[in-house]
Amino acid sequence: MISPIFVGHGSPMMAIQDTACTQFLLDYGKKLSPKAIVIFTAHWETEVLTISSTNDVYDTIYDFRGFPDELFQIKYPAKGDVELARMIADRFTAKGISVNLDSQRGLDHGSWVPLLRMFPTPTCPVIQVSVNPYLPPAEQYRIGEALRGLDQEDILIIGSGATVHNLRALNWDAKEPDAWAVDFDEWLIQNMQSQNLEVLFDYAALAPNARMAVPRPEHFIPLFITMGSGDPERSVQVIHRSYEVGSLSYLSVSF
């Protein structure tokens, strides 16, 4: 069994820097031997849930600008799995969730950067799934529920995003995490560990500093998807927590 995880993927620089978070990802990946990986990435937004469906090696997408040339030389040659993609699509359809299959799109940096740090050499198929940030949190959770039980088949589900992701609020001179970001994450952790779903679903109104932490929800909602995919009888574990430039959160959670 491999528990679903949410990981903060932060900056693309994670691919080439050594930080507390990249060391965590490397160490955590060494503990796992997934049969396949299903990753929901904040950097692929679609109105209808869309699943990558190919048996080929994915292209590596460089969906960023202004970073060192070294980043643009990295390839992450993971392969897809059409049969697994269709099985996952069937699970969503059975729950009344509309899906599309996509055979062309490569892996964006929300996928390949954390995967590179967890599994430097791809060893299993990867299925990338899009997100619709405009669906309410309860619906994001329901999307995750459709995949509940895949962990029993040694399929690793990853939600890739960030709990606090406000690029306009970054504090480049910060030596310590910004208190407002820490308070938001603390609220999340407390309510996830006590399984206060109704409160979590209303985070925008109830969480401290929610508007600052989540100015737009595309990086945040993979948390709800991953949460929904986990076994509610298991305890929620914080598996990593660190910050960069004041408020960029690398909070990572196991469900």
From TrEMBL:
Classification via SUPFAM superfamilies: LigB-like (SSF53213)
Cofactor: Zn(2+)
Keyword Zinc tagged: yes
Occurrences of domain Extradiol ring-cleavage dioxygenase class III enzyme subunit B (ranges): 30-250
Highest rank taxon of the organism: Bacteria
Keyword Zinc-finger carried by entry: no
Keywords assigned by UniProt, alphabetized: Dioxygenase, Metal-binding, Oxidoreductase, Zinc
Gene Ontology molecular function: any one: dioxygenase activity
Pfam families, sorted: LigB
UniProt protein name: Dioxygenase
Family of the protein in this entry: Belongs to the DODA-type extradiol aromatic ring-opening dioxygenase family.
